[in-house]
């Protein structure tokens, strides 16, 4: 799985776990809502600064957002 | 600790653990040697694509390169 897709899935899961809309997360991170939407669709190659900023708001570690799901056997 | 510094330290540690010089890592990743040097000095805000490409060469997970060291008590 491409790392952008890994990040996209983890970002969306962490956002939903916090009960935040894309709008609310975007507002808190001072990022455009369309950018959050694009990240969740694997459109952009996020920088680690952005990953860390979003992680802080979502109360997870930046490394958690890049964790690949276990391989299917 | 800033995420760039976390990445810088982990990148350098993983590179040295593999016994690679900055030149060798740069060559294998098809990245300029000065870019690797800058990443290890926290100068640039790496993208997750670059983090993942370097992780693959160093045989670690992208998430490992963003892991913060345990907090000092």
TrEMBL record, chains A, B:
Lineage, top ranks: Bacteria, Pseudomonadati, Pseudomonadota, Alphaproteobacteria, Hyphomicrobiales
Domain HTH cro/C1-type intervals: 11-65
Family matches, as InterPro entries: Cro/C1-type_HTH, Lambda_DNA-bd_dom_sf, TransReg_Diox_bact_type
GO cellular component labels: cytosol
Molecular function via GO: DNA binding; DNA-binding transcription factor activity
Keywords associated with the record: DNA-binding, Transcription, Transcription regulation
PROSITE patterns named in the record: HTH_CROC1
Bilayer-spanning residue ranges: none
Protein name as it appears in the record: XRE family transcriptional regulator
